[in-house]
What we know:
Helix content is 28%, strand content 26%. Strands 3, 7, 8, 12, 13, 14 and 15 form a seven-stranded mixed beta sheet that branches. Strands 5-21-20-19-16-18 form a six-stranded parallel beta sheet. The radius of gyration is 25 Å and the shape is globular. GO terms for molecular function: glycosyltransferase activity. This is Capsular polysaccharide biosynthesis protein.
Amino acid sequence: MRRAVNLARRAARRLKAMLPDRPPPAGTPLALVFEEDVLPRVENVLIGPSPTRPGAISQAVAQVILDEPETRALLGGRSGGVDVPPWAHGANGVLRSRVDLVRAPDVWHAPAYGALFNDQGQVFHKAIHEALYLTPTLGLLPGVTVEGEGSDAKAIFRPPEDVPTLDRATVFMAWGGLHNYGHFLIDCLPALATAIQAGATERFPAIAPPMLPWHRELLSLMLGPQSIPQVIEAPLVRIKDAIFATAMDHFLHAPNAPLDFVRDRVLSAAAVDPGAGAKKIYVSRLGSLKRILVNEAELEAALAARGFAIVKPEALSVREQVALFHQADVIVAPAGAALANVLFCRPGAKIIELQPSNFTGVWVRNIALLAGVDWRAFFAPSPLSETEVYLEGHHRPNAEFSWRLDLEAFLTFLDDSL
């Protein structure tokens, strides 16, 4: 009998192998949508029962604009180097973006990507935007395959089996925050802070993908050790009623009021003595393979001779980084994620940012202005060399390159600034 059963199974396998492959079950095409285009704006999304699909949106924090004259008065003439961009002197003012709360019923959530999308295939842009750097086709999302080629390619979602379901949840972790200290501190934590200040997390518990120790340390400082969000191990979950704040999307470019909550909570918990610590620091990137400053060792030697302590934030705990920046009077640093800690500087402290010309950005400037910090920058022509990086066939410029600082010109600029 057993032999007969085995022979039957083998025959069935051979027959199956001879049959043509069955087409995959029909799926849902995914498409990015901007929340404001598809969601009705209401006074407060938290009032009342879950909205009808696809959800609703309401303002949590109003937009603020510093006009150009005011910004020029703060920044004008303070930056130097080669090809200083007009914004470094205050051109066009400063935007502090509005933050909205979004409430969406019956959505799928991929925690490792920040993604939220519904059964109609609408992928909410503010939640997924940072992950588009990694997967512009959406093809890396769980349950998604990219079918077709070129302009005809489509991301098709087919729900996996046995996906966990949550009744309610607050989503705050953008993809960038999983991998980058600056994005976590300046995008994700303000998104969570917005939900907390609105009272959302009392009914919609915060969730997050598996985190690293430094994520947990920052969360513990902001929330207390007993309030860490629930960790979701599954690659995909179903949420019956979800909340998220639009600060998840590159909030560091135009930071606004929720950062005050983050700053105050973290500094209070860290209990930093502002009178201790080094007063002049250089934030080293020596050894980094992404944006190599080829004469950084010479720069460090010259700064050490001027009384600067050379520090490597990645070797410090979060609490030590907060203290380091809060205690410093003068900070010199190449552009990089560690400068998110400018948020914790004392008002009036001075930050001098070194920016290669192919990697300029306003985000440190905007955080400094929000915190009352004296921001200046020195710009250097770059790159000397560049490694081409492609993700899903899309070119990612400025990801890996080398550059050189005109040391003599910078040291003159530094001495004049001090």
